[in-house]
Write a structure and sequence with these properties.
Elements (H helix, E strand, L loop, with lengths): L2 E4 L1 H8 L5 E4 L3 H6 L6 E2 L5 H8 L8 E4 L4 H13 L4 E4 L2 H5 L1
Parallel strand pairs: 1-5, 2-3, 2-4, 4-5
Length: 99
């Protein structure tokens, strides 16, 4: 399966000490308030922009996504699967669970 949901501990372990593709799919307003260190922001609600920006990332490398509660990132993960990403990791419970 291309999409894996990781709990907070596993997600944190996966993104620590590595140069990973970490993407916050919330709105820029949500992102500005707080985000996970080194995450880039690609707004799921702006679909044209979403596809354009994700297409600049490496589809063969793992991509880690999160949103506020895990709902948007699950939709984002399915979209990334359709765009050809091979390894997609989604943070269970989103940023609410992170803090």
């Amino acid at each position: 399966d291309t999409i894996t949901i990781l709990d907070k501990a596993a997600f944190n372990e996966a993104i620590s000490n590595k140069n990973v593709q970490l993407v916050d799919v919330r709105t820029p307003q949500e992102y500005q308030d707080e985000y996970i260190a080194h995450a880039i922001n690609i707004d799921f609600f702006k679909q044209d922009d979403f596809v354009t920006k994700f297409n600049t990332l490496n589809k063969d490398e793992a991509v880690y996504v999160y949103c506020r509660s895990g709902n948007r990132s699950q939709k984002a993960a399915r979209k990334l699967d359709s765009l050809g990403f091979k390894k997609i990791y989604d943070l269970k419970g989103g940023y609410l669970n992170w803090n």
